[in-house]
């Protein structure tokens, strides 16, 4: 069964940073897949802009190679690829100079959706916004896509918001958090708000605790310079993990509409209590015989930046009073996997004898790998021999439930880009949300600096520092294993 593709209007999409890593690995391969799915109208254009010296033919050759490397099985479609490349153009533009802007202007058309993707470092956002305005390339109907990181603390996020606000209104700005573009994350909202089963139980009366884990097996790779100034808290918790927490914890919006959803997420962030520093564990990975330590990776032998963080936090409202949310994320861990586990409470009274009666329902929302949702339920173990209970997953993995249609699970970037073209901001962070998130994380980071906090070491290939396990054990709980 082929999934339904909603066509979009004709567009001119300008990608500043069109020669960069993100454009090559994600944005252009994603657009190519949307093209093949019939979602990119033939009159639409993608215009890449950066300082490097390319003509259209040279740029197309670069992107052909990038799509062959990163585009998945679809890149074998030679005719499709050729047709897609024909819709690409390149303009040499320096964000901080005035050359190239007239040529860019001459390529832009009236009467189509105009979107500008800032796939460049945030220090260039202001210069780009100003030149788009000065050269009259962007107008009130244009859309602006900006990448993470959105600031490194509240102050810088406010500055960035103010810079963009000089030339663009909030309803023109699309702040990307690609976690929100994942199929399962949106499915989480469908599970919560399109079923009668879950919402009545979705509160402190029935939920014991919630775990959110984003585990990576890779180290910092080539991003050491950036990462060491950032750390897991800024790079992952302030954006991705908090966004997931918001979608789990928010009240039902009155409609599935951008500001209604974002208002509810903002209320969650504002209700997050300050975190007791005893409830946070930071870590740094050690070397193995075959892989370097974090400190070697970032070439900074004295760094105290964390490559792992685990914490327990609370949301101060009626729904979640007393329910801990445990968050953890880290690099060079034993398995790669992102998942949310909603762990329900024990039964008040069990009619079944013995330890085997101690079973719990757990709703697991897996973001990667194998996106899907499963619900752990307790049943009788089949066969004779009395009433023995076992836990089994009610598996809602898309591949099983949806067959061929699941194979068309759209990558987060391509979905989000198409939402920009449709003018749908639901899955993008609003400026006040980002600022509220920094207001919560800043005191944690400042506390570490003030106390001279030193991250705990952990073995590459482990589940993180021992203290992270203790964070759970002290509460009589344990992390659910990430199987990868
Ligand atoms: P990158 O590989 O360093 O690419 C930067 C791009 O900016 C290049 O195309 C570069 O092209 C262009 N550029 C630099 N200075 C310029 C100037 N003065 N005027 C015009 N263009 C200029 O970076 P990236 O990894 O693609 O990341 C881009 C943005 O996405 C960053 O904000 C990053 O934090 C964010 N991001 C990246 C990833 C990822 O996986 N890569 C993930 C999440 C977020 P020229 O040198 O040709 O000018």
UniProtKB/TrEMBL annotation:
InterPro entries attached to this UniProt entry: G6P_DH, G6P_DH_AS, G6P_DH_C, G6P_DH_NAD-bd, NAD(P)-bd_dom_sf
Superkingdom assignment: Bacteria
Entry keywords, A to Z: Carbohydrate metabolism, Glucose metabolism, NADP, Oxidoreductase
Keyword Oxidoreductase appears in the UniProt entry: yes
Annotated EC: 1.1.1.49
Domain Glucose-6-phosphate dehydrogenase NAD-binding as annotated: residue spans: 14-187
Enzyme class name: oxidoreductase
Catalytic activity: D-glucose 6-phosphate + NADP(+) = 6-phospho-D-glucono-1,5-lactone + NADPH + H(+)
GO molecular function, one term: NADP binding
UniProt pathway annotation: Carbohydrate degradation; pentose phosphate pathway; D-ribulose 5-phosphate from D-glucose 6-phosphate (oxidative stage): step 1/3
Binding-site residues, NADP(+): 17-24, 51, 148
Record-level GO BP terms: glucose metabolic process; pentose-phosphate shunt, oxidative branch
Pfam families linked: G6PD_C, G6PD_N
GO cellular component: cytosol
Keyword match Secreted: no
Sequence positions that bind substrate: 178, 182, 216, 235, 331
Active site per UniProt: 240 (proton acceptor)
Limits of the Glucose-6-phosphate dehydrogenase C-terminal domain: 189-480
PANTHER family: GLUCOSE-6-PHOSPHATE 1-DEHYDROGENASE, GLUCOSE-6-PHOSPHATE 1-DEHYDROGENASE G6PD
Record-stated family: Belongs to the glucose-6-phosphate dehydrogenase family.
General function of this protein: Catalyzes the oxidation of glucose 6-phosphate to 6-phosphogluconolactone.
Protein's recorded name: Glucose-6-phosphate 1-dehydrogenase
Native source species: Pelagovum pacificum
């Amino acid at each position: 069964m082929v999934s339904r593709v909603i066509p979009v209007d004709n567009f001119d999409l300008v990608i500043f940073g069109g020669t960069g890593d993100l454009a090559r690995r994600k944005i252009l391969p994603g657009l190519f897949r949307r093209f093949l799915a019939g979602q990119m109208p033939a009159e639409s254009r993608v215009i890449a802009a950066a300082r490097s010296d390319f003509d259209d033919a040279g740029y197309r050759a670069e992107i052909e190679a990038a799509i062959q490397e990163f585009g998945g099985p679809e890149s074998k479609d030679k005719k499709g690829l050729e047709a897609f490349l024909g819709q690409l153009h390149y303009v040499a533009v320096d964000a901080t100079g005035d050359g190239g802007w007239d040529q860019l202007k001459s390529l832009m058309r009236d009467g189509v959706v105009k979107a500008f993707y800032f796939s460049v470092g945030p220090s260039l956002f202001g210069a780009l916004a100003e030149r788009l305005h000065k050269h009259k390339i962007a107008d009130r109907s244009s859309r602006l896509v900006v990448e993470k990181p959105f600031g490194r603390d509240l102050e810088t996020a406010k500055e960035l918001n103010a810079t963009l606000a000089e030339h663009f209104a909030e309803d023109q700005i699309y702040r990307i958090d690609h976690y929100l573009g994942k199929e399962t994350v949106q499915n989480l909202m469908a599970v919560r708000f399109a079923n009668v089963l879950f919402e009545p139980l979705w509160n402190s009366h029935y939920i014991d605790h919630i775990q959110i884990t984003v585990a990576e097996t890779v180290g910092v790779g080539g991003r050491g310079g950036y990462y060491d100034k950032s750390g897991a808290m800024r790079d992952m918790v302030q954006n991705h993990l908090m966004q997931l927490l918001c979608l789990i914890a928010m009240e039902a919006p009155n409609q599935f509409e951008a500001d209604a959803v974002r208002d509810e997420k903002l209320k969650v962030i504002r209700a997050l209590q300050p975190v007791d520093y005893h409830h946070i564990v930071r870590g740094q990975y050690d070397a193995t015989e075959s892989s370097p330590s974090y400190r070697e990776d970032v070439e900074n032998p004295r760094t105290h930046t964390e490559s792992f963080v685990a914490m327990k936090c609370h949301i101060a409202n009626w729904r979640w009073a007393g329910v801990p949310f445990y968050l953890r994320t880290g690099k060079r861990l034993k398995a790669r996997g992102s998942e949310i586990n909603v762990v329900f409470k024990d039964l008040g009274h069990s009619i079944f004898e013995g330890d085997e009666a101690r079973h719990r329902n757990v709703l697991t929302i897996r973001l990667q790998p194998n996106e899907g949702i499963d619900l752990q339920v307790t049943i009788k173990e089949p066969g004779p021999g009395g009433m023995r209970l076992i836990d089994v997953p009610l598996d809602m993995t898309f591949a099983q439930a949806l067959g061929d249609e699941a194979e068309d699970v759209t990558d987060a970037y391509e979905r989000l880009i198409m939402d920009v073209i449709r003018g749908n901001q639901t899955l993008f962070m609003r400026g006040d949300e980002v600022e509220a998130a920094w207001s919560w994380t800043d005191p944690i980071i400042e506390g570490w600096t003030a106390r001279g906090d030193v991250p705990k070491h952990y073995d590459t290939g482990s589940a993180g520092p021992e203290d992270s396990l203790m964070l759970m054990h002290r509460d009589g709980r344990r992390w659910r294993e990430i199987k990868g």
